[in-house]
Amino acid sequence: MVTTHDIPAHDASEALAERIRRAEAEGTPLRIVGGDTKAFYGRSVQGEALSTREHRGITEYDPVELIVSVRTGTPLAELEAALAANGQMLPCEPPHFGEAATVGGMIATGLSGPRRPWAGSVRDFVLGTRIITRQGSEQRFGGQVMKNVAGYDLSRLMVGAQGTLGLITEVSMKVLPLPGASQSLHLDMPLAEALEKLSEWGRQPLPLTAAAWLDGALHLRLEGGPSSVAATAERLGGDELKADFWEALREQRLAFFSAEDPRALWRLSLPHHTPVLELPGVNDADVLYDWAGAQRWLRSDLDAETLREVVSRAGGHATCWRGANGQPVNDPFAPLAPVVEKYHRNLKAELDPKGIFNPGRLYAAF
InterPro entries attached here (predicted)? Predict the structure, then answer.
């Protein structure tokens, strides 16, 4: 077991706990802030800013056991650099959306990159967390091994909760080795053929770790052993694609994501092998198919109710990522089913009855 000293470390947990105790006593809402690079994702929060930026540093890192523990104010880029120096990576390939992105923002939003369907989500690699509760006490949940648990797995429950249930101060995660070889391909083909091919290849043991369709072409990434990657690339054909395409996709730097587009940008989450959705006024050029089609980015003027009804019938859900002309929206997330909403309310009432943690971040009522 080794402790990493490359990143300047500082434990600010007691100061954060004292601020939370005061907020709980006074009933003052807090707006949790890390790097603020994902502030657009969700509803705006009215409250006093509680910054985690000073609470930073890798506390433990065991490259042999593939486990890292890190404070949540640590810049995400610094964590990734420390892992890369040991030939390892975060398998979920989380987006940054800015140089100031923190580990806490990665956990709070739960967003994953192009490798998600083949490697897993952020939640899949969380082993344990430290959380400051509304009473200002720091509690540890989970540990440093993968195991089944009984009852609530609060560590993974915090992933994607956007800070509405407590303040995450530290997270332990499983990491994986960097692939031995990587090659990206560009294959010109129409959308229907691309979806058919992806469905066919999904049933074969191919070293695929990313697949996206955009502008009349299927983009693929192959990773694994050198011989497997080379043989698969020769079999599939196509032209070589620059590897930085996947970072541009992950960070939404492709022209498709231009904030100058007057239409709203939607993120559609769908079951694998979902066919092309029949959406009024939408053509192939309006959609970017990521995750082999399980995640789709849509540019459209369709009203939210119509769009969400079509996506729901297909077994998925739609999030309004940005409104028209890049503007934020009041209710970006799909409305919850009554039973699911009940569980959300009960959980919030149990962990944060006074609503001091990022109130209204996910939904207006809690």
Answer: FAD-bd_PCMH, FAD-bd_PCMH-like_sf, FAD-bd_PCMH_sub2, FAD-linked_Oxase-like_C, Oxid_FAD_bind_N
What does residue 152 show for φ and ψ, rounded to 5 degrees? -70, 130
What's the CA gap between 255 and 180, in Å, rounded? 31
Can you read off the two tokens belonging to residue 168?
């995450």
pLDDT at residue 7 is higher than 60: no
What tokens does 68 get? 């890292």
Q: What are the b/e assignments for 194-218, b being 16+ CB within 10 Å?
A: bbebbeebbeeebbbbbbbbbeebb
Region for residue 120 given its phi and psi (left: phi exceeds 0; alpha: psi -120 to 50; beta: otherwise):
left
Is the pTM of the predicted complex or chain greater than 0.85? yes
Rg (alpha carbons) of the chain, rounded to whole number: 21
Per-residue pLDDT at 150 exceeds 50: no
Interatomic CA distance for residues 243 and 220, integer angstroms: 10
Three-point CA angle 29, 103, 149, nearest 5°: 85
Residues 6+ apart with CB under 8 A from 296: 267, 268, 270, 277, 287, 288, 289, 290
Proportion of the chain above pLDDT 70, given as a percent: 96
The residue with greater pLDDT, 141 or 4, is 141
Token code pair at residue 182: 């990587």
Greatest extent of the chain over all pairs of C-alpha atoms, in Å: 65
Q: Of how many residues is the chain composed? A: 366
pLDDT in tens, 181-201: 999 999 999 999 999 999 999
End-to-end CA distance of the chain: 41
336's tokens = 């919850």
Domain at 181-250, CATH from 2.60.120, 3.30.1050, 2.60.220, 3.30.70: 3.30.70
Confidence band, pLDDT 50/70/90 cuts, at residue 325: confident
- The type of residue at 246 is W
Residue type, 334: A
Looking at the structure, give the CATH architecture of the domain made up of residues 255-326. Answer: 2-Layer Sandwich (3.30)
CATH 3.30.70 residue window(s) in the chain: 181-250, 255-326
Which residues have CB under 8 Å from 44's CB, separation 6+?
328, 360
**Considering the domain 13-177 in this protein, what is its CATH number?**
3.30.465.10
* Contact criterion met (CB below 8 Å) for 220 and 184: yes
